[in-house]
Amino acid sequence: MTSNEKKLNGNKDTERFLRLLTPIQGRIYAYILSHWPNRSDADDIMQETTAVIWKKFDSYEPGTDFLAWAVTVAKYTVMKYRKNRNNHPIQLNDEAIKALQAESDTFFKKYDGRLSALKECVKKLPQRDSTFLELRYEQEMSAQRIANRFDISARAVYKTLSRVHDVLMRCVRYSMAEDAAS
Description:
The chain is mainly α. The longest helix is centred in the middle third of the chain and has 30 residues, at 94-123. It starts with a helix and ends with a helix. The chain is 79% helix and 0% strand.
C-alpha cells in the first residue's frame, strides 16, 4: 500500500470515527458523570476515553452498537481512573458501581426509545413545522431570523415552535405507551 493509499484510508477511518462518535459524545460524558461526579475529573476521563476509543477503533466491529462499545471503553477508563485515584474521597464499591451501571443501561434504553419515537413523530409533521424545527435546532437560527425568512413576527415563530413541541410531546408519549402495551 502506498503512502497516499494509507493516508486516504486513514482519512476515511477518521471520518467514520467522527461520524460515529460525535452524536453520542454527550451520552458517554453523561455515563462518566454518573460514575464520577467531579466535572474536572470527568473531563479528563472523557478525554482519555476518546483517546482509547480512537486507539482501539480498528477493533470495533462495524454494524454493532457503537454506543455500547464506547460506553464499555468509558466504563473501563473510569475503573482505571478510580484505581489510580485511591485517595479520592468518594469511593464507590463494586456493588454500587454495578447498580449505577444497571440504572444507566435502563436510562439509555428509555432514552433510545424516546429518541426513536421522536424521530418518527418529526417525520409526521407538516413540512412547514419540520422546517421551523430544522432551522431553529439544526441550523441554530434565532427566532428573529426565522421570522424574517418567513415574513412573520418572532412571536409567531415562538408560538409555532411551542405548538410543535406540544404535538411532538403528545406523539412521543402516545408512541411510548403503545410500545409498552405491545
